[in-house]
Amino acid sequence: MSLKTYLRLVGFAPPLGKYLPEYLVYTLFGVVFGLLNFTLFIPLLNLLFTTYPEPESVTMPVFTLSIDYFKQLFNFYFYNIINEGGKIAALQYVCLVIFCSVLLSNLFKFLSQRVLTSVRSRLVKNIREAVFNKITDSDIRFFYMHRKGDLISTLSNDVHEVENSVVSSLQVIIREPFMLIGFFVLLFSMSAQLTLFTLLLLPVSFLLIAQITKLLKRDALRSQDLLGHIMGTIDETISGIRIIKAFNGQEHIKKKFDVQNNTYRGLLKSVINKRELASPMSEFLGVSVLTLVFYYGGKLVLDQAGDLSASEFITYIALYSQILIPAKNISTAFTNIQKGLVSGERLLKLIDSKIEITDKANALVLQGFNEKIELKNVHFSHEQFQVLHGINLHIEKGKTIALVGPSGGGKSTLADMLPRFYDVSQGEILIDGINIKDVTIKSLRQLMGNVTQESILFNDTVANNIAFGVEHPDWDKIIEAAKIANAHEFIMALPEGYQSNIGDRGGKLSGGQRQRLSIARAVFKNPPILILDEATSALDTESEKMVQEALTNLMKNRTTLVIAHRLSTIQHADEIIVLDKGVIVERGTHQQLMNANGLYQRLCEMQAFEK
User: Dihedrals φ, ψ of 301, to 5°?
Assistant: First the structure.
């Protein structure tokens, strides 16, 4: 599962075929020149601490792609320099080669890092974009099944964790194996016997590190889960701060947060301790192995039982000690990957979640609304709870239909099914005789304007909220929409008028002002079908009268579905539908229902409505 997760996450990178060859070339040259730095210590040590025999006459070697060729080529120039200029000139030659080799090694390392940085940044951007697009495209039911805190945690912390672990490991997985292979090729060329001995000692290190990573993944999974709960608590606290203070609930919410925070602290401490243990343990194990190699190799040199000279053995130890760096990097990377894979699995689970409401293949594009909306034997269930039972309803074009009834009767659910926020469990909804499941969701919702009970506004300017979703709106239409919604006067009284920022969720405005902006947004869209879900509920008496008058003018020649608890606002509706427990119990005009002495009349009397 972990390998599959890792490969899928890496799959979000830009096409590796474009970047991988360039990266491999830079990495290969960086490794080659990095290894060359160490091999040059052999002639340097021989030059400084041994007495060379009389310089020999060395011929230019014939080219072959092998280590021996490059060794002979170096010796050709090396002995010629000794013959011509002596040991001081040879020392200058070796130091110059080392200088050039170090320069080129770091240059290629930098170039490879630039390529990897481009891949890394694009990969993280693509993952974050995929998650955000999934959240944006998901249907409404998705948000009732997922905690908001979990979604925020996934977009921020999980993506960050993947970047710091899984994405960062790309360099280790590609570069470090090159280093290890290069080191072992050189070590085998110097002493196959000693190198085989070292290989017998390495598996012990990897087994111990693997056990740590297993424990780390378990704790990481729990800590990421708990972090989602913490983010959810923070979001609930910010959203409900008025209620918390009004009910003196500060201590209760603090205690709840403290318990979650302390539990997370303990888990985080465990995760960090295990992650940090991997590095010193790998270093300790590496040094222990190096000590054994030093003893065994030193014994071979002293007993003259092997083919190593003293200078070669010192270089061998220097080379072998460098194996610890890529080996340590790989073990640390695998430890970090385990924590990142937990976040990666959460990300992929979200990305793979099924969107229930989508366009069917070859869906039609609705060009307009001409005749009527029909609901035929509509049933709807939510989590095995039956909300609507056999609803049959005709809404002729240009008519105003009101939905009333006790809370929980299914009014808002019925209205939400028209733009396909939910799909019917049974039955069908038709627009001009076409099932709404057979048309594109975009063209369907383009016909409808919504004003909800809760004013949903964005942290942006007044103008951008009214013209929401339109790239280059007509300024005159924005002002006209505001005037129809009786919002123009208070907008002009704001510090920057239509360019004033209204704050998070419109927090800088009053409830009535927020609702009038929502109505102006629906007016600006100019749809043929209006859905008004308690559109005037947040307004005071004076504002309600103004907006109701504006809505009455707006609804002329439009098809309107109105949900209302204030029954005084819907007395002029063409038909009033009374819903109770998901069933239509009464229907007719206001006067007809008042004469029927049924549920509608009782609701009116409860509101002291004048007959």
Answer: -70, -45
